[in-house]
## 1
Amino acid sequence: MSNNPLEAVTQAVNSLVTALKLPDESAKANEVLGEMSFPQFSRLLPYRDYNQESGLFMNDTTMGFMLEAIPINGANKSIVEALDHMLRTKLPRGIPLCIHLMSSQLVGDRIEYGLREFSWSGEQAERFNAITRAYYMKAAATQFPLPEGMNLPLTLRHYRVFISYCSPSKKKSRADILEMENLVKIIRASFHGAKITTQTVDAQAFIEIVGEMINHNPDSLYPKRRQLDPYSDLNYQCVEDSFDLNVRADYLTLGLRENGRNSTARILNFHLARNPEIAFLWNMADNYSNLLNPELSISCPFILTLTLVVEDQVKTHSEANLKYMDLEKKSKTSYAKWFPSVEKEAKEWGELRQRLGSG
C-alpha cells in the first residue's frame, strides 16, 4: 500500500465511485467510506517544538533554525566573496541550506504606516486621505492604473528573505545543540560581514510566517495575528481549521473560510525538469534581479526557494577521477569512433578533477 496519503484518498474515492455505479453495491460503498482515513495537512509538516534557550527548532528526527535577512537590491564583489567563503568553508557537507524569497500581498499595515507622513490637511483632509489610501490598496490588490498601451504588472509587494537549515538529530544531545548554536553564530557573522542584517525567527514569528505561506488568502491585505500556544505542536498552529486543499492535474486549489467569507486560490509549482546544457553562474543573479524589472516582475504572490548543498570535496574528487579514467580509456579505443563526444567529455572531467584537487 502506498505511503502517500493523497494517493490513498484517490484510490478510496475511485473505489467508492465504482461501487456506486454498480447495482446492489451500496454495502461495499459504505465499507469503503468506513475504511477511509482522511489525511491532515498539518501532519505532513515536520515542525514540532521550539527551544527558547537555544533558539532552535526541535522536530521528531531533525533540529534546525530559521533566520530572516534584509533583502538587498544588488551586490558587489566583496559581498559575493563573503557568501561564497561561507558556503565553501562554514557549512557542513551534504546538508541543505535553503534560502526563500517571499513576495507577500499583506501590505495593508505598511501602506497605512507610510501614508502617515503624506497625509492631507484642511477641510477635505479625511476625504482625500481615504482616496489616497484606496488608491494604494487597490494597487496592492490588483495593480497600479497605467496609461493606455502600457501593460506592466506594477503592484505593491512586501519582499522577505528567510534562511532555513536543519540536520538529522534524534537524541537532541547537548553536543548537537552546542554545535548547531555555534553554526548559527558563524552564519550570522558571515552575513554581517557581507553587510546583510539578519535576525533569528522564534516560535511566534515562525507560526506567523509559515501560516502566511500555507493559508494564502487572495482577498486579504492584512496579516492575521496568531496566538502561540506553548502546549500545542507548531505544525498544528500553522494550518487554519478551514484549510481545504484539492489536488488537480496541473495545480492545487486552496480554500479558506474567514469572517464568514470563502476564498479560493490556485497554487502552481515551477521547477527545472532537467539541468540546462549550458549554464553560467551569473545568470542566476540576473534572474533574481529581473524580478525587480517592471517588465519581468511577477505580479502574483510567490515563494522562490534556492537550495544549496555543499558536497564532500574528497568524495567528489574521487568520483571525478573515476569518471575521467573511464572516459579517457574509452577515448583511446574504437568507442570514440562511434561516440566522438567522449574525447571532449574526458577533457572536461580532467579539468574538473584538477580544480577539485587544487581546492
## 2
Amino acid sequence: MSLEELTVQRAERGSKPDSSEKPQKLTKLGKPSWIYIFKRSLREFLADGCTDLAAALTYFTVLSAVPMLLAMVSLLGVFGQGKQTTDAIISFLSDYAPSDVLSVVRGPITELTASSAAGLALVTGIVGALWTASGYIGAFGRAMNRIYDVVEGRPLWKLRLINLVITTIMVVIMVLMMLLLLTSENVLNVVGDFTGVDLSGFAAIWTYVRWFVLLLIAIVLIAILYYATPNVKQPNFRWISPGAVFALIMMGVSGAAFTFYVSNFGNYNKTYGAIGGVIILLMLIWIMNNVLLFGAQLDAEIQRARELHAGIVAEENIQIEPRDDTMAVKNLEKLDKLVEEGKEIRLSNDSGMNMQKTASKSKNINDIDLS
C-alpha cells in the first residue's frame, strides 16, 4: 500500500490522539518500551534517509542565511553605527565559531554593515528572508511527513499560507535569537543612549541572562517546527518534548565537539584550500539539521509506543490522523488515470503486435502452399 493510500485510510478512519488508553506520562512506558523507542528511532532515521533530508535542509538554511543576516545587521544598525554592529558580530564569532568559519563570513558582514541605507536594507532583508526561509519550512515539513509515514494532503494554497505564517514567526524568532547572541554591553549602552533609558545596571548581568532567554526561545522554535510543519494532527501543542530536549542538548554537544575537532585535528584548509571554511560551515549546519530530525524521529516513536500501549496496531505505521488528505486523494485519482492511460497504450500495442503476428503467420502459410 502506498503512502497516499495509507494517508487517505488514516484520514477516513480517524484517530483519538488524546485517548485515555494511551499512557499520558512518559514514565509509564517502562524500560522495555524506551529501549524499543531508541532502537526504532535509529532504524527509522536511517530508513527514512534523514541524512539526505538534512542535506536538503542545509541547502535551504544557506539560502536563507544572507537575507536573515541582512535583516539582523540592519536592525542593529538602527540603534548604532555600522562599525559597532560589525565589531559585535565578529567578536561573537571569534569567541564561539571555528576560525575558518569566521574567515568566510567576515567579508559579507563588513559589506552589509558598510551600507548607509539601514531602513531599506531592513525591509529588503525581511522580505527576502520570508520568501527564502519558506523553502526551509516546506522542506522541513516534507521531512516530518516522511518521519510520520504520511504524504502532504493540504491544498497548495493552504500549505503555502501556513508555511508563510510559520516563516514569519520563525524569522522574528531567529532575528531575536541573533540579537540576543550578538548583543553585548556596548550595544546595550548604544540602545540606551538611543532610547533614553538607562540600561547600565541591566547590562552588567545581561551577558549571563541572555543564555537562559536564548534557551527558552530555542525551545519555542523547535516546538513550532515539530508541531506545525507535518501533515499530522499532533495530540496537543507541547512547548517542550523529549525530542526537542534531546535535539537542544545534542546540538550543543555536537556543535562544541565539531568546533573542538576542527580547531585541533581538522586539516580542511590543506585538503580543500580556500573553500575549507565553507566546507566546515556546511558540515556544521548539516550536523545541526540531522540532530533536529532525529529529535523529531524520537517524538514520533514515542507516539508509536503510546499507540502500542493502547492496543493500536502501529507496529508498521504510526496511526496518528493526518490534518488533511485532499491532495492525497487527488494524487491517487491522477495516478489511476495515468495507470489507465498506460494500460490503454499497452493493450493497443498488444493488439497491433497480435495483428502483425497473425499477418506473419498467414504469409508463412501462403508461402508453404505455393511451394
